[in-house]
Amino acid sequence: MHSNRPLIEFFQIHFDLSILLSSTVSAIIVVLIVAVATRHVTAGIPGPFQNFMEWVIEIVENIMMNTLGKKENLFILSTGVSLLLYLFIANILGVPFSFMTGGENFVNWWKSPTADAHVTITLAIMMVAYTHFIDIRLHGFKSYLVSYFKPFTVMLPINLLEQFCTPLTLGLRLFGNIYAGEVILAILAGSLANGMGSAALAALPMMVWQGYCIVIGGIQSYIFVTLTMVYISQRVNGLH
């Protein structure tokens, strides 16, 4: 099912209102989850929300141990936890339903923000820039520049090319998986509207695929955070 984007222009820059809406909602949901989970923190028996938050933190700590070899850095830990929660919510936001308006030219107002390559590549660029910031903060700007000439001076073009390819592959991997899932959901949703026979045949596959998309959303969130931690570990340990 083909749908159009609800675009607005501001200072000759086009903004997708559906992406702005879903991205903002994802961020608000993450803030609410963290606020509820940390509202009544106890050293005794934790409640369900605190237990969930501790589980998420433990996941990120295990990722840090496997990549960085340590988990005590709260600066990096908070980044990983925030990123994992945001990506998971953003990945599954368009799974339950889709909201469209218009007659023949449908306008899609509700979808997962990570089903758009602009969002995922921007997130990837932000994470790679974050790793560069950590490198400069730990080793200084001079050491950061010299690292591009290691292990040999002739490696400079390859090292520079790597910095452009890393956010591209990181972002497109996430985009491809989430976008493909929502395309299949749109096809199945279209079958539901084509009569009782088609609806009966498509109902079960659609529910199964929705569950599968939730699992894939979680896996892709984990992979994105893991690769981010790998890139951070390379900068922290000076391995370029």
Q: Tally the structural domains.
A: 1
Oligomeric state of the chains present here: single chain
Strand fraction equals 5-15%
User: What is the radius of gyration?
Assistant: 21 Å
Query: Counting H and I runs of at least 4 residues, what is the number of helices?
Result: 7
Helical content band: 55-70%
Strand order of the largest sheet: 1-2
List the helices and strands in order: EEHHHEEHHHH
Number of strands: 4
Mind summarizing the main beta sheet?
A: 2 strands, antiparallel
Mean pLDDT: 83
Q: Which residue ranges are poorly predicted, with pLDDT under 50 across at least 5 consecutive positions?
A: none
- Head-to-tail CA distance between termini: 45 Å
Shape, principal axes of CA atoms: globular
Global structural class: mainly alpha
Structural account:
This protein is mainly alpha-helical and 240 residues long. It has 7 helices and 4 strands. The mean pLDDT is 83. The chain has one domain (7-236). The chain has helices at residues 17-37, 48-67, 74-92, 117-139, 141-146, 156-192, 196-236, and strands spanning 7-10, 13-16, 100-101, 107-108. 70% of the residues lie in helices and 5% in strands.
Summarize the structure.
With 240 residues, this protein is mainly alpha-helical.
Keywords:
two-stranded antiparallel sheet; mainly alpha; about 5% strand; about 240 residues
